[in-house]
Design brief:
This protein is mainly α. The chain contains 34 helices and no strands.
Length: 574
């Protein structure tokens, strides 16, 4: 009932409109029967439009125009209906008709401009707004619309002239200057683009933000000398401005002296008034350098700055995240894990932080931690396949193979077109089926993984090791391990798998030589490699040495019942 009343309120207002806009020949006295009929049709049309019956509304508005071709209100409303129906050509024709019979109606003109734009004639739209700007010179709205359509029509020079006119009438503003600057940048006119920003700094000499805009652009176009002059002016206004101080400190960086440069940033980094984003921006290139070079001196200097950032911005998740990144790429996984956990306490909404944490749990063989983190990630990010994937890895390692399978199948459904991830998921599904003693399903999953990505080292290695564990199809296992080794030579995990295939073939001396190589390339930190090395030594009758390596494997985190049994009995159990 309320809805019905609201419609009729609108219709009464429309009745008033039609009375005032019907054919100008209407007598000032009582409306004729024909005029009343037209008004009734107009109201019926408007009612249908309000109810969303646009086709019916169009038919009725057309009927009005048949009876009164100069009824500009009906033409305008018809144009709006056609616009809703995405019939741009008819909408343009109708609004043109409305404008013919009421040239001074600003709303008609504006709608006509919009329809010109929709039909691909932005230049005509700009021209209409140009006329409206002349008629309404005390407001900037029509000027801005004219320039907007000039740009759409690729009439850049005309747009700039419009903005010049705006500045003459309303003064220099950041909005107009930025627009002109962007247009000059697009034209490749660096001189005029620079001049626009210089004009802004002169207009507002005490505004530091405008000076930073100018300095940033000067650096972008390679004019570092001019940028430094701007930064000096900034420091005259604010001696503690971090961005300016950092910019002026980079002489050492330009000379290749990273350590001196990083040392020069300490005071700036200790200043809480300098934004954390400015500081992190300086650290990011060094994170990449550390990842590539493993330079210890560079690592120490950068970590010192990261610690300062963390101490200066203790409530900022970013501070702990960037510290975690530095620790991760410098090889300190345990401390990196702690920093990522602190990050999540402050802000748990960034999936990449969770992902990095889950990778670290995996690298550290902390599968209980991985299970906990992945479960939380699944709750927070139910549409991220990686969360389910890592949960599958955790449950496989904890021998909860049914739970692993459930998570991995969910990850598979979410993996979309990510072929690499799909291959990895199938590989883990193969492991889950193997743990459930469903061997045929395990093999099918591994074969699907290889079919999806025949050069996926992880998949090749995992399938090879799985076959070796069973002691069957050892030639196929050796073939897969060999392919993996060709793709990733000196990978200790792959070398260990190859050795284990040889072990299963009772080629113990050759297996030992591959494990020697695995240990040489980092396998001394991998509990699985150490345990296998102990097994091989036992087979070679080096019982005491075998015990040493079994114990080393246990110290590095291996905790299987079988390993404990070996150590307790000083005997190999298959």
């Amino acid at each position: 009932m309320i809805f019905t009343r609201s419609i009729y309120c609108v219709l009464y207002s429309l009745l008033f409109l039609t009375v005032t806009v019907t054919n100008s020949q209407a007598q000032p006295n009582r409306p004729s029967e024909a005029e009343v009929n037209i008004q009734k049709i107009f109201i019926d049309a408007s009612r249908e439009k309000i109810l969303g019956n646009y086709e019916d509304a169009a038919t009725l508005y057309l009927e009005v125009l048949k009876k009164d071709k100069e009824n500009h209100a009906a033409a305008y409303e018809l144009a709006r209906v056609y616009d809703v129906l995405d019939n741009n050509e008819k909408a343009l024709k109708s609004i043109k008709m409305a404008v013919v019979y009421d040239k001074g109606n600003m709303w008609y003109q504006m709608f006509l401009a919009d329809m010109y734009d929709k039909t691909g004639d932005s230049a005509e739209a700009a021209a209409i707004y140009g006329q409206l700007a002349k008629l309404n010179p005390d407001t900037d709205y029509h000027f801005f619309k004219q320039a907007f359509y000039n740009v759409k029509a690729k009439e850049i020079d005309k747009a700039i002239k419009v903005y010049d006119e705006v500045e003459k009438r309303f003064g220099i503003t950041q909005e107009v200057t930025k627009k002109k600057h962007a247009l000059y940048v697009g034209m490749g006119n660096e001189k005029k683009a620079t001049a626009e920003l210089q004009k802004l700094t002169k207009q507002y000499p005490n505004d530091i933000d405008y000076k930073h805009l100018l300095a940033d652009y000067l650096i972008k176009i390679g004019n570092k000398s001019a940028a430094k002059d701007v930064y000096k002016k900034i420091l005259q206004l604010d001696a503690e401005d971090g961005r300016a101080r950092i910019a002026l400190a980079d002489n050492a960086k330009q000379g290749g002296d990273d350590l001196t440069y990083l040392s020069s940033l300490k005071d700036v980094f200790k200043n809480p008034d300098v934004g954390i984003d400015v500081k992190i921006k300086e650290l990011i290139p060094y994170i990449h350098k550390i990842a590539d070079t493993k330079d210890q001196a560079l690592t120490n200097s950068t970590l010192e700055l990261a610690e300062i950032v963390e101490a200066t911005h203790p409530s900022e998740a970013k501070a702990f995240s960037v510290h975690g990144d530095l620790l991760y790429y410098s090889g300190n996984l345990k401390d990196a894990r702690s920093k990522y956990q602190e990050t999540i306490k402050l802000d748990n909404s960034v999936f990449t932080v969770w992902e990095q944490l889950m990778y670290i749990h995996t690298d550290l063989n902390d599968f209980k931690g991985l299970a906990e983190s992945s479960e939380k990630a699944m709750d927070l990010f139910p549409n991220h396949a990686k969360a389910y994937y890592f949960n599958g890895i955790a449950n496989n390692s904890l021998r909860n193979h049914n739970d692993a399978l459930n998570s991995l199948q969910q990850a598979l459904m979410m993996s979309g077109k990510n072929t690499q991830l799909k291959a990895d998921i199938y590989s883990k599904i193969g492991q889950a089926y193997f743990g459930l003693k469903k061997i045929d399903k395990a093999d099918n999953a591994f074969e699907k993984a290889i079919e999806l990505n025949p050069k996926n080292v992880q998949v090749l290695n995992s399938y090879s090791y799985n076959l070796a564990l069973r002691g069957k199809e050892l030639n196929r296992a050796k073939e897969l391990a060999s392919q993996a080794n060709e793709l990733s030579p000196n990978n200790p995990g792959i070398l260990d798998t190859y050795a284990w295939v040889l072990y299963k073939q009772k080629e113990y001396k050759e297996a030992k030589s591959w494990l020697d190589k695995a240990i040489q390339y980092g396998g001394e930190k991998m509990p699985g490699v150490l345990e296998h090395y102990g097994d091989v030594l036992y087979q070679l009758d080096e019982i005491d040495n075998a015990m040493i390596y079994w114990q080393k494997a246990q110290e590095k985190g291996a905790n299987s019942d079988l390993l404990e049994k070996k150590i307790a009995n000083k005997k190999l159990f298959e």
